[in-house]
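Give me structure tokens for this 191-residue protein.
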Amino acid sequence: MRLGLWLLMPAALLAAAAGCSRATEVRFPNPMPMSSVDVATGERAARAVLRDMRFDLVFPPGKPGLVETEPMTGSSWFEFWREDTIGSYQTAESSLHTIRRRVTVAVTPASTGSQVSVKVEKQRMSAPGSAPQHVSAAFNIYHAEDTDLLRQDEMAPTTYRWIDTGRDDALEQRILEHIQLRSAPGAHRPR
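Here you go.
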């Protein structure tokens, strides 16, 4: 009887942990209203959050309340300290493809304070040439002289291009959350 309880206890703990492991997802509206936060405080918070995420800010700023970044290549599996790639799917995607993100944050006045709008544009780099149609073409096991690398002139410019893949909603939500925490009364504000 005691042995049966000891065998059931790990299974019960795993079942309980599985039920508790998923936190409720909080969705922030985009644009997000921030009562009692003025535009300058919201802009400082946005700049601090984006610098903490290692984005390069565009200077000089275009307008008060507008924060833009340079495009930044997404983090991979081995860059676990970076916060610009959210979730295992996007981490795998950034590890297998060259992905970049550009962030625009607009802090505008509202009736009770301000509102923050975050837009993260995501792009994937596309290499020139056509994709292989089958496995043997991918490995080019029949005609080694037909590879793109052999035919490509080493000194000719490569025509890589960036393909828009839409917005990165998960990163937008993370940035909104950090801006809200950074601009709260009593929160650490950058100088």
